[in-house]
Amino acid sequence: MMSQVIAKRAAVSARPMVRSFASSTRMMADNNSEGATGAGKDAFGDREKAQENYYIKKHEAEQLKNLREKLDKQKEENLKI
To answer: What does pTM read for this prediction?
Structure first.
C-alpha cells in the first residue's frame, strides 16, 4: 500500500518537470540566429539588434586579435627551437 502511494507521488511530481522542459525546448528552438532581442519589427528593436550585432563583432575582433598575437608568439618560440 505504502509503495503504491510513493510510486504514484513520484509519477505525479515528475510530470510538471517533463512538461516544463518540453515547452522551453520549443520556445528556444524557434530561431537561434536572432539573439536575445527577437525579430525587431519597430525602430527600437532594429536599433537594439544593431547594437547587439556591433558588440558581438567588436568582441569577436578582439578575440581574433588576441589569438593572432598568441600565434605569432608561438611561431617565434618555434623558430628559436
So the answer is: 0.45
